[in-house]
Design goal:
The structure is a single chain. By secondary structure, the chain is mainly α. 94% of the residues lie in helices and 0% in strands. 4% of the residues are buried.
């Protein structure tokens, strides 16, 4: 399901990029046609302006697509965090039975922390989350690099398990 969403977004961005090229070509052809074969510097200036206008238009479209993709990712992250919290709460009972209630309390505390973090992620908009991430990197670059490495490792493992599952199927 996530793969099809990513593929759809990539395909949308490819289509948008192709549209940018086509529209810029048409605009440049039109501008050159309007100016005739006269003043070359006028043609160049018009072509530059047409490229700038087209780039601005399609940059805004690409930003909208990226924002939509980020909003979808934020919603999925919130759902995943809720599921992790639920797993921790469910496991707390087993931890009580096997290791004692003190350790079960730790599991419940961890679940509460994950739930609180999930609520924070859901409550903030994308811009606020990006600002928070920038602030974290500024304050604690070592933690940010470590977290990025951990996330990269997890993603690599997930991709590898997906590739292994596809090759067996």
């Amino acid at each position: 399901m996530a793969d099809s969403s990513v593929n759809d977004t990539v395909n949308d961005l490819k289509t948008t990029t192709n549209d940018v090229g086509t529209e810029l070509g048409k605009t440049i052809d039109t501008k050159i046609g309007e100016t005739g074969t006269g003043d070359l510097s006028g043609k160049t200036a018009d072509a530059k302006q047409a490229i700038k206008d087209g780039a601005t238009k399609y940059t805004a479209q690409a930003a909208d697509k990226a924002r939509t993709f980020a909003e979808d990712g934020k919603a999925r992250a919130g759902t995943a965090l809720d599921q992790i919290a639920q797993l921790l709460n469910d496991a707390a009972g087993q931890v009580d039975d096997k290791l004692g209630s003190q350790y079960g309390t730790y599991a419940r505390s961890a679940a509460d922390s994950v739930t609180g973090f999930a609520d924070q992620v859901k409550a903030k908009d994308i811009d606020a989350l990006v600002d928070d991430a920038r602030e974290l990197v500024r304050k604690s670059p070592a933690i940010a690099v470590g977290a990025a490495a951990a996330v990269g490792f997890v993603i690599a493992r997930l991709v590898q398990s997906g590739v292994d599952a596809n090759s067996k199927g």
